[in-house]
């Protein structure tokens, strides 16, 4: 089947230009001069709208076990919600439990996702048990198209890795060309601060933020960078939230070290004030790292402009307020950590364009092109160009909308951005040449999405 997208402005990371887009089957066949005389099986009117590459959310947690419960979105609901928001690829995390193997973990996550996703997907691997066997299995994971390995300096007793374990995993990453992803918070110090707060009767959700100060994110980020320098390993810092951590990343990048970082929409728009909302409402905003004082936001926007922050992902890990977040009433340390967001990333970042924080091309770059290159999917994904997968979004920059749990498609009972008015809206979404969202609603299907075996990071020097 052929589809012709007519009259739009094609926006890539390199800039914007009027062009018609011809789709043939699952691929983009050609970019044509506007109005080029051509017939297709279906024509989509994109006049006054942008045509951009489908979004790539490189950090999601569908069906993730945490604190005695599991994230509210499964792969069918989460990938459907992603499609509604213009995201056509997710990279989720397979979570190794201590005492289990990486390869059996990967098998379990394939069983969860295969045949159940509405859009294409890949996996990162969480390494929580570093030993000779798991280090050897990292090689097999790379062969299977999973070449990014997340480790934690937080959560002692669950995911926490010692500096020695991190060093060994980084040495293996250097050997295989893979990339270590790091949750950089000083978990040992944080656990002590949490215990002190609870002992003093400080139990409200805001304490989650107060006991995880930005200095401890900065310290852990600096330590991870030092270990990466010693080993020669690439390092990707996930969900960076604090100016102190950004400073450490910028310094490393200025020396030419292969250090990269992402931030998330919640750190650009929400703050510690949200964690302090009364009547336990603050629990809706509990995530790790925590929301920061508002002054950190301008620093993160600056980091996006300077490319010290390379990507914006969501860390989508939704837990319902009722029955899940409420597990932490009377003890903030028991509140499941996570904020829903996979549906709204592209819209929220377009607000950055509207506000003058980032350019139109940079919007596309951080939403799609850079994650495609960072995680070995480019040029198949992340670009509107002949030969690429026809993952396309027709985006209306003039439409307005109000974000609300009443209208979102994520399987969670609240929105972290409830009532926020934004300019810009997804109009039509194609996934590998199939229209999955348009004015008539969701036209996709569970099982359309395919697993993506990824190549290595294309930014390594």
What does this structure look like?
With 461 residues, the chain is of the alpha/beta class. Helix content is 31%, strand content 23%. It contains 13 helices and 21 strands. It has helices at 75-84, 102-113, 132-143, 163-176, 187-199, 206-210, 214-231, 243-254, 265-269, 272-275, 296-306, 345-354, 360-374, and strands at residues 2-6, 9-12, 15-18, 20-24, 27-32, 42-45, 50-53, 55-60, 65-66, 69-70, 87-95, 120-126, 148-152, 179-183, 235-237, 259-263, 311-312, 392-402, 421-431, 434-438, 441-442. Strands 8-11-12-13-14-15-16-17 form an eight-stranded parallel sheet. Strands 3-2-7-18-19-20-21 form a seven-stranded mixed sheet. It has a four-stranded mixed sheet with strand order 5-4-1-6, with no helix packed on it. Helix 3 (132-143) packs parallel to helix 4 (163-176). The radius of gyration is 21 Å and the shape is globular. The model has no long low-confidence stretch (mean pLDDT 98).
Strands, helices and their partners?
Elements: E1 2-6, E2 9-12, E3 15-18, E4 20-24, E5 27-32, E6 42-45, E7 50-53, E8 55-60, E9 65-66, E10 69-70, H1 75-84, E11 87-95, H2 102-113, E12 120-126, H3 132-143, E13 148-152, H4 163-176, E14 179-183, H5 187-199, H6 206-210, H7 214-231, E15 235-237, H8 243-254, E16 259-263, H9 265-269, H10 272-275, H11 296-306, E17 311-312, H12 345-354, H13 360-374, E18 392-402, E19 421-431, E20 434-438, E21 441-442
Parallel strand pairs: 1-6, 2-7, 8-11, 11-12, 12-13, 13-14, 14-15, 15-16, 16-17
Antiparallel strand pairs: 1-4, 2-3, 4-5, 7-18, 9-10, 18-19, 19-20, 20-21
Helix pairs in contact: 3-4, 4-7, 7-8
């Amino acid at each position: 089947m052929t589809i012709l997208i007519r009259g739009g402005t094609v926006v890539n990371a390199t800039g914007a230009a009027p062009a018609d887009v011809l789709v043939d089957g699952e691929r983009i066949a050609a970019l044509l001069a506007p109005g080029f005389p051509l017939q297709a099986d279906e024509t989509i009117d994109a006049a006054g709208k942008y045509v951009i590459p489908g979004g790539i959310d490189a950090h999601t947690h569908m069906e993730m076990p945490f604190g005695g419960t599991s994230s509210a979105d499964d792969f069918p609901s989460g990938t459907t919600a992603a499609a509604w928001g213009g995201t056509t690829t997710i990279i989720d995390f397979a979570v190794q439990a201590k005492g289990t193997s990486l390869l059996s973990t990967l098998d379990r996550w394939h069983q969860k996702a295969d045949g159940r996703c509405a859009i294409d997907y890949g996996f990162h691997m969480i390494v929580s048990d570093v030993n000779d066997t798991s280090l050897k299995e990292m090689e097999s994971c790379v062969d299977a198209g999973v070449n990014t390995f997340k480790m934690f300096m937080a959560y002692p007793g669950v995911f926490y890795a010692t500096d020695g374990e991190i060093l060994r995993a980084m040495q293996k990453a250097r050997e295989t060309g893979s990339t270590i992803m790091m949750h950089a918070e000083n978990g040992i110090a944080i656990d002590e601060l949490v215990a002190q707060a609870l002992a003093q009767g400080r139990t409200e959700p805001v304490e989650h933020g107060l006991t995880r100060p930005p200095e401890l994110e900065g310290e852990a980020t600096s330590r991870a960078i030092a270990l990466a320098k010693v080993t020669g390993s690439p390092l990707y810092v996930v969900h960076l939230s604090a100016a102190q951590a950004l400073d450490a990343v910028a310094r490393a990048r200025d020396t030419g070290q292969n250090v990269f970082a992402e931030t998330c929409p919640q750190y650009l728009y929400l703050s510690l004030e949200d964690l302090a909302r009364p009547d336990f409402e603050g629990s809706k905003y509990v995530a790790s790292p925590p929301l920061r004082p508002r002054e950190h936001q301008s620093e993160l926007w600056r980091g996006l402009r300077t490319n010290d922050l390379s990507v914006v992902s969501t860390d989508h890990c939704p837990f319902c307020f009722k029955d899940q977040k409420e597990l932490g009433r009377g003890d903030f340390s028991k509140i499941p950590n996570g904020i829903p967001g996979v549906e709204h990333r592209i819209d929220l970042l377009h607000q950055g364009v509207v506000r003058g924080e980032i350019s139109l091309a940079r919007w596309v770059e951080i939403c799609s092109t850079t994650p495609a290159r960072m995680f070995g999917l480019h040029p198949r994904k992340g670009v509107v160009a002949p030969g690429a997968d026809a993952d396309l979004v027709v985006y209306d920059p003039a439409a307005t909308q109000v974000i609300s749990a009443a209208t979102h498609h994520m399987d969670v009972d609240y929105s972290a951005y409830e009532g926020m008015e934004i300019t810009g809206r997804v109009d039509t979404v194609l996934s590998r040449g199939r229209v999955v969202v348009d004015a008539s609603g969701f036209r996709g299907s569970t099982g359309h999405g395919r697993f993506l075996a990824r190549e290595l990071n294309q930014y390594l020097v």
